[in-house]
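Cross-check.
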Amino acid sequence: MWCANFVVRAENLNIPRSLLLCLISLFFALSSGWGVDPNNRISQYAHTAWRTKDGAFNGSPIVITQTTDGYLWIGTNIGLVRFDGVRFTSWSPPAGKRLLDSRIFSLLGTHDGSLWIGTGYSISRWKDGELTNYPELSGRIESIVEDADGAVWLARTQPTDTAGPLCRVKDERFRCYGASDGIPFALAIQLSKGSSGELWVGGYSELCRWKPGSCISYFANASRRPETFASLRWIAAGAEGSVWAAIDRSRPVLQLEQFERGSWVNRAFPEIPANNSDVTALFVDRNETLWVGTAHHGVFRIRGKDVDHFGSADGLSSDAVGRFSQDAEGTLWVVTSEGIDNFRDLKVVSYSTREGLSADAASTVLASRDGTVWIGNYRALDFLRAGKLIAIRGHGLPGRNVTTMFEDHAGRLWVGVDSGLWVYDRGVFSPVRHSDGSALGIVFAITEDVQGNIWVRAGPHLDRIRDLKLQDELTSAQISTAYTLAANPRGGIVLGLVNGDLIQYQDGKTQTIASNEIGNRRQIRDLVVETDGSVWGTTLDELALWKDGVRKNLTTRNGLPCDGIFALVRDNRKSLWLYSQCGLIAIDKAELDRWWEHPDGVVKFKLLDVFDGVQPGLTSLKPQATRSPDGRLWFVNGQMLQVLDPEHLQENVIPPPVQVEEVVADRKSYAPGKDLRLPPRTRDLEIAYTGLSFVAPQKVRFRYRLENRDAAWQEPGTRRQAFYSDLPPGNYRFRVMACNNDGIWNEAGATLDFRVAPAWYQTIWFRLLCAVSAIFLAWALYRLRVRQIARALSARFDERLAERTRIARDLHDTFLQTIQGSKLVADDALDPSTDPVRMRRAMEQLSVWLAQAMQEGRAALNSLRTSTTQSNDLAEAFRRATENGQVPSSIEAVLSVVGDARDMHPIVRDEVYRIGYEAIRNAYLHSHASRLEVKLRYDQDLTVRVQDNGVGIEPAIASRGKDGHFGLRGMRERAARIGAQITIVTSPTSGTDVTVVVPGRIVFRKLRTTKFGERKGRG
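Predicted model, tokenized:
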């Protein structure tokens, strides 16, 4: 957690990320305890190989290094490759730049974030997206190191100048050192930095311990005779002052020179099947362990007198080894001719036949009090003691297959072998049999109670043994189904049955606690009894706890990552470890106590899975898990032995550096950087990011958030891409953070600022224009509506005025004239007169005039009330007009209709009716006709014809109307209003003919147009 806190505080202090990563790398580079554990065999490390023939990357790898941003860089014979633990990416220089040579022989990531690239021609520097070449430093760059001042030193061969084989570069200035500076050779093939800051420079046959201005030479061959000529193969300096050198003197065995305490000591390793001429690389890791790479035999690891080997037969990509490197997390990298490999520590270490097991069939395990770990294997009883695996088999084992094991209070080992029970003590197996000498049967489980009785579940019986003699043999239907046994610290024993029931047996009494579980996997596979008498048990479905007569189950519903629990064991801190199908699950005691009080809650746990070295498996034998006195936990899976030390679980405390690698918008790639501007109308956006942790890159998890889009952090798990669609124009900030395999988060993470440009119709000016246009349009619509309303009101006012004018005309032409005539008669009657006859005649005349006035008033009212809106039939309306008493009986009225009646617009229909009504009325008032004919014709147009045989109308009146009268003028005004054509033909001899033609498109409501353009109405 120190490193995580340091990262957060450093970010708060605005320390640059490159410097931050540099400090972290430096801290762990100086930490001697961070690296692969030398106490384990190489085969016990996690190993991964990437081979060129499998298409991992192009070219043959030569060298590997790590930069402070977390990336690994691989130099090949055709270029440079970048690796993030998941993806290999071929590096391309920026436009207009290139390396001076594609063959890369050396690489170094320095503390300022630079990557120095040594090629077959010169050296180059890659930093912050800029490539700088140094053609002046010609030659093949064999090796590069960085000193404490940040200066870069390089060893070169094949230079085109005579400046010297050793060169220094600092702040864009460089200088080379040669013979005039004390270096006794012209070509340098090796370069290593010592613990005191000195440089060890190797030529072909000589080694120079060099500081500016001085050189101490070693292994110089003064005589130069062939039989004494020695060539320098490789050198490697450790952090504690020791230096290793491989000098080829044509000796048959490997002999390395070690510089220690000021002098060289020869170390011979006859067990290594290689000589010095086969050495291709030396490397001292952070635990001061020496690694030797060979040209034909793979990798050797030397620590003290212990030598370990790993080659292509063990999974190495090739036996031809090139270089070694170690990253910031301690992972060891090996470059071979056919790929790259890495080795890293696992929290759970495995033992198989490669480490000394007699067979890959370990099915039961027991740790005894003296620290010995016993393993029941195929036809053997293996035991691990003092780091060595030994097997008891053949005639030394009284049988073929070990079924179970138990250690009693006296340190004796009880072993079930085949169908019998044996006690192993002081190297001797002694049988335990029935009184008749027969074997007890197949032994399934063994335990010892607090009184020293050994209880054995053998065959169908439960046997009690005391002083190595069988005392009791119990049999029942329940006992015959018992699968596990455990002693109760409060007395008696506990049996777990195949049906999930639990039996507590003490002093001849049994108490059964029924499981009440429904399912097919209820068999209790393992038991742990606590000091308070509570019992933990496992099935393939859950973890169960029996306490105070109550059973509660802990399952995936409580947050466990899986079911299928094979075995369980307590560690020294009382945490419970579950050996399950998804790995090892650790639950603290406090968390278990909290769960018991709240059985529906979610428990917190720690999971170690396959990436931590766990290889779970189910065995039918017991015990499958055990704890040794040193606190380590041991498990078997039917194949191998696995061990975990809960007290010394090495955590990866380095938060992974996070990088945004690529932005893909609508299938076009963009390099992330400042002022990234995406084109308008970007629809599909993909942001690729990575977290640089190589311990278990498959377990690196991420969180990301796109500000101005995501309301909360997104949890993509291990996915390394974020996807967005249809982002609106604007400025965005993408933030991503990552955690390593142990859950240590780099909360500072990485950020990417970008902008989605607006399309022309998404710009603010366009929006303002749209707003202004919308306001203008609304104003225009408002003005148009006001005008429409004004026109409608004006039309209604005009209609009212026209109607009033017509009524005025009607009243003036008929009703008022009659009233005026009545007034004259009344005035004449009021004149003084004594003639009663004249008075009577005047009164009779007045009565007639008043009757006529009443008749004319009714006619005016009828003209207003008798509307055609009550009926669509004009013929019926005209019929009523000729039959309402207005036409004198002396005139014969005839009505004829041609065609079918059609639906008409009410306003037009009323106007037509009133024109016709006025013509009928004029005919009976003024024509003196004997016949009146009204014709109504429905065709493409509507035709109304009113014809009489009267005296006609004077031409002047027919054309202009009569002064003071409004009948004819009103008819013409109505016709003009509805777009109709009116024709008045009159003659003194033939009468008057009034014809009105209304276009069908105006009067008829339903009118369709044929394909030939002919309009047709539908009645």
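Residues 1-33, 222-228, 1008-1019 have pLDDT under 50 and may be disordered. The chain is about 20% helix and 40% strand. Passed to J.P. for a second look.
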